[in-house]
Amino acid sequence: MKKTNVLILGSGGREHAIAWKMSKSDSLNNLYVAPGNSGTELIANNLLIDIKNYAEIKKNIIEKNVELLIIGPEDPLVAGLHNRLSEDEEILNLTIIGPKKEGAKLEGSKLFAKKFMKKYNIPTADFKSFNKDNFLEARNYLANSNPPFVIKADGLAAGKGVFICDSLDESEKIIEDIIIKSKFGTAGEEIVIESFLRGIEMSVFILTDGDEYKILPSAKDYKRIGENDTGLNTGGMGAVSPVPFLNDNLMDKIKSQIIEPTLKGLKKEGIEYSGFLFFGLINVDENPFVIEYNVRLGDPETQVIMPRIQSDLLDLLIDIDSPNLFKNNELLINPESTTTVILTSGGYPEKYTTGYPLKGINNINDVILFHAGLKLHNNKYITNGGRVLAVTAKGNSIQEAMQKSYRNINLLTFPNAYFRKDIGLDMIK
User: How far apart are CA 295 and CA 100, in angstroms?
Assistant: First the structure.
């Protein structure tokens, strides 16, 4: 059996979870993560390189004879890393998981995504776009609409560029912060204001070669910092899988109204798309609407998805450049439930302090720890980010898995540590 050298780009909990899954494959030769973290270091070879530095990436791909590249975060995809690598004559026989720049616009520009959905009749909220030139029109539009208002920075904002405002005053301040005060830099040069959809959010993920697709385990994440979904948006405070209310009827609608029209629309636009595609959805009275596209796996959803994939995921990824092999390679999903709870530094997603020693990690039992903002210093784990780690558990039910996650996260301590105590509670009937 041929063994494959794999490189994963990224340093977060998502990349640790992908690396964890890759490490279990019989088809794996060498596993590299760049730059990786203290968790990937336990199961792979970390390469301390800057993933914005093309020359360093290229050098390591050639030197390490990398045959499969998984691009974890969105930034390099939107910047066109796939394009540069595929056009580089010195790099041969490299399978790249992640779309080219043209496909990555689905995430890189909210306005592009909304116009795409409108063109191909993919259900989504009504919207208007505004910029500095028509800022006053944006204010007038809000004044003549009813709250809540959904306001989004057009570009990438690390998951923090979406605001749901309950009042006109709040929404006016947000659009001023984004457009006039450039809170998100160039990402906020344009904003999208959407109609508010009332329902329950969920995440559906596919792996596609552009024609065929495999549906990965579904998940529901929890974005707000506070319990009962209050406070600021974060990169994610926890997740559960599967989504209990995602029945066969709703999934059929998602396939026929969203997944397949999206793939057909991309082909009609002449956009080659291969890799993961993430549909951020909302269920409104048993009808799915797209909130957003992401062109990579989600974080922290990956931390609950990977443990539920029974198949050898690496084999599927290898087959993505071989249409017949990919089509016929079945994806098997474990029926068990998984939950993850994110342990964060106090103050996140705003100002927080790092450098605290993490205690209790040796007492952990019957869960998987996916590292994010941790580093190893003098054989001790030290906090090194806002989202520190994910505590992931399996169970016969969401309730059972959740109890394991919480039993273990309560054993982990450092000054001002914080986690939400209600992850998954709304999914327990």
Answer: 10
Q: Is the CB of residue 221 less than 8 Å from the CB of residue 175?
A: no
Whole-angstrom Cα distance, residue 18 to residue 43?
A: 11
Nearest-Å Rg of the Cα atoms of the chain is 21
276 vs 110: CA distance, rounded Å: 18
Alpha-carbon gap, residue 127 to 56, rounded angstroms = 41
Dihedral, 166, 185, 274, 21 alpha carbons, nearest 10: -80
Confidence of residue 113 (pLDDT cuts 50, 70, 90): very high
In 120-198, alpha helices (H): 135-143, 168-175
Cβ neighbours of residue 72 under 8 Å, at least 6 residues apart? 8, 9, 10, 12, 14, 15, 18, 296, 297
335 vs 141, residue with greater confidence: 335
Other C-beta atoms lying within 10 Å of the C-beta of residue 377: 12
With CA atoms as reference, report the closest residue to 125 among 282, 285, 278: 282
Q: Token pair of 59, please?
A: 């050098």
| 149 CB-near residues (< 8 Å, 6+ apart) | 142, 163, 164, 165, 168, 171, 193, 196
Domains by residue range for the chain, with CATH:
4-99 (3.40.50.20), 127-194 (3.30.1490.20), 200-328 (3.30.470.20), 337-427 (3.90.600.10)
Give all strands of the β-sheet with 127-131 in edge-to-edge order. Answer: 127-131, 190-194, 149-153, 162-165
| C-alpha to C-alpha distance for 46 and 8, rounded to whole angstroms | 10
Query: Residue 45: what pLDDT?
Result: 98
Chain segment 42-78, per-residue pLDDT in tens: 999 999 999 999 999 999 999 999 999 999 999 999 9
304 closest CA partner among 20, 76, 6? 20
Residues facing residue 201 across a β-bridge = 282
3-state secondary structure of 359: strand
Cα(395)–Cα(47) distance, integer angstroms:
34
Sheet strands (E) in 189-304 = 190-194, 200-208, 213-215, 220-221, 224-226, 230-233, 238-241, 275-284, 287-294
Q: What is the pLDDT of residue 429?
A: 67
Least reliable range by pLDDT among 129-133, 270-274, 347-351, 371-375 = 129-133
Question: Degrees (nearest 5) of the Cα angle 38, 73, 306?
Answer: 65
Helix or strand (DSSP H, E) at 374: strand 374-377
